[in-house]
Structure formats: structure tokens, C-alpha cells
Amino acid sequence: MQIVEEPAVEGPHNCKNYMTDGGDTLVIGGALVIENSAMVIGLPLEFATVDTTGVIYQAENQRASTATDVATLVNDFNALLLKLKTAGSMAEDAPGAA
Known about the structure:
alpha+beta, Phage_B103_Gp8, virion, host-virus interaction, virus entry into host cell, viral attachment to host cell
């Protein structure tokens, strides 16, 4: 069996997914299915905000704790948990959970 490479043809295409720019660009006009085991390499992750779309929300900063007693440390830790939940990085508490 012989494999013959042919250059990408620019212009009209008879399929929804095709290469252009000499193979530098892959145009996806149909569905792109990514299986559970697939990896995407080199995709920059943009942080989402209430004003812009992105891949993940960035949690609000939590200062390093300076707690000197357990009660203050618990308050600092709970503040961190709240920020993670607000950003969507952590699931909300179940209804009725303490």
C-alpha cells in the first residue's frame, strides 16, 4: 500500500470539516465530539467573570490566615469555602446541611 500526500485544496469544500492554509487551519463546521479520555493540549484557559465568558470562574482572593486561635482559623477557613462556592469551584451545601 502506498500513501500519497496531496496538498490541501483551497476553495469550495464538500464536507463540513476540512483543512485550509496548507494544513495549518482545521475548520470544524460539523459536530466536534470529545470523548472522556481525550486531552486538549495548548488551549489557554480564560477566567470567566460576571461580565465576560470563560472556561472557569476565578475565586476571590483569600488572604493568608494570621489566626492565633481555633475560632479565628475556623472563620478564615469558612470564608475560603464561601469564596470557592461563590466562584462555582465547589458545590453548594446540601439543603439543611449545617
